[in-house]
Specification:
It is built from 19 helices and no strands. The longest helix is centred in the last third of the chain and has 41 residues. The radius of gyration is 49 Å and the shape is rod-shaped. It is an all-alpha fold and 414 residues long. Helix 4 packs antiparallel against helix 18, helix 6 packs antiparallel against helix 16 and helix 11 packs across helix 12.
């Protein structure tokens, strides 16, 4: 119901209560005149009823009016109570709401009934809702991206990268990485592949070996002897690397592994390697270069995100939609997930409400306290004024009945 409708209703019931008082006043005047000209005993009863009814009506009119304003505009003490006590009223109302509606005992039954997971799962499962969610989130992110200052973001990235790399020891990272590969025995694949490549190279380039042998040989040695030596060298080397390739337990593999372990430990512990990599890092991550890299990275990320968020059928949106469908299905079917989410929501809501109950009380108190006194009186009168008019009506009727009883008792027994 609107305020205007409430005002019309209040005026209607005020007119009814006032009309009843006027009726009692008219009856009292008429019966007073009739008593002087007629000797009928019933007139006294009616006159007594109307007289007491007027007193009751006036008393209750004064009581009701005193709540909201000064009766007849007269500054009578203890009237216009709401306007004069609005601060106290606000404090008491805030305390009342907190104590009776926001206490642990009151809110716990409602919190325990919360079941958010099912509702969220159903909502997310609808294609229309997914489109709305993705569209709104995309617009928010795009708006943020467009408002960000590119230079400030680049400087932020550059600063964070610089802070992260200050204490990074690249030699230790590289050494640990090599040891990790060795422990997993992954380097054996490299040795196998390298042995095969060397073997094939020797076989495919036997003429080059012959030329090398001839070039280093003496002039008095016949060519067929040099060729024979070259063939033996090529054959021996290719057989050797073939053995390394095919034999996983070849001694050369163990030797290579041992040497790599030694190099890795040296790489980690020798200060010279730390200095070497620090120099390389500083050369690579100079301030001007770092800022340039950061700017390029940020602009690339921004462009990619903007494109993906603006396109209707982008890969990013398809990926998000796919995950939303999976998450929605899980929320509807996975009881364990449902219980975890609902429990978290209940605990969080319970703690948050209890933690902020005083703020609710302060809000009510400050809101009521900040209202203008007249405004507060009008608001309350609109809400309860109709029922208060029935107090006036009841006061009129009850007062009349009491007056009638007293008159009857005095007439018959006194």
């Amino acid at each position: 119901m609107t305020d205007e409708a409430k005002r019309k209703q209040l005026r209607k019931y005020k007119a009814f209560a006032t009309g009843l008082f006027v009726l009692m006043a008219i009856i009292f005047i008429v019966t007073t005149i009739l008593q002087k000209t007629h000797d009928s005993h019933w007139i006294g009863y009616v006159r007594a009823f109307s007289e007491a009814a007027m007193v009751g009506a006036l008393a209750d009119w004064f009581a009701v009016t005193a709540l909201f304003r000064h009766p007849l505009g007269l500054p009578i003490p203890h009237t216009n109570l709401i306007e004069n006590s609005k601060e106290k009223l606000g404090d008491n109302l805030g305390t009342f709401v907190v104590s009776n509606f926001l206490s642990p005992k009151t809110i716990r039954p409602y919190i325990q009934k919360l079941k958010i997971s099912g509702f969220v799962g159903e909502w997310l499962g609808k294609e229309k809702n997914q489109e709305i969610l993705i569209k709104n989130v995309s617009e928010i992110i795009l708006d943020i991206l467009n408002k960000l200052d590119d230079s400030e973001v680049s400087q932020f990235i550059s600063k964070k990268v610089s802070e992260m790399t200050d204490n990074i020891k690249l030699n230790a990272i590289l050494g640990n990485g090599i040891i990790y590969l060795l422990d997993k025995n992954d380097h054996q694949k490299i040795i196998t592949n390298l042995s095969k490549q060397i073997k094939d190279y020797i076989i495919e380039n036997d003429e080059m070996i012959q030329e090398r042998v001839k070039k280093g040989s003496y002039s008095f040695i016949p060519s067929f002897v040099d060729n024979k030596i070259a063939d033996k060298i090529a054959s021996g080397l290719s057989d050797f690397f073939k053995e390394v390739e095919e034999d996983p337990d070849h001694e050369i593999r163990s030797l290579i592994t041992k040497k790599i372990y030694e190099f890795s430990n040296d790489l980690k512990e020798d200060p010279k390697w730390n200095d070497e990599f620090k120099t390389i890092k500083n050369d690579f991550l100079k301030n001007d270069k770092l800022e340039e890299y950061s700017n390029d990275i940020w602009l690339s990320i921004k462009k990619t995100l903007s494109t993906e968020l603006q396109e209707e059928e982008s890969s990013l949106k398809k990926y998000i939609t796919k995950n939303l469908n999976e998450f929605s299905q899980n929320l509807k079917t996975d009881e364990n997930l449902q219980n975890k989410i609902d429990h978290w929501v209940r605990v969080t809501a319970y703690k948050y409400i209890l933690k902020n109950t005083h703020q609710a009380g302060n809000l009510i108190s400050s809101t009521v306290g900040n209202w203008q006194g007249k405004e507060l009186s009008e608001k309350l009168e609109l809400e309860v004024g109709k029922d208060l008019q029935f107090i006036r009506v009841n006061g009129t009727l009850v007062g009349g009945l009491v007056g009638l009883i007293i008159y009857t008792i005095s007439h018959f027994f006194i």
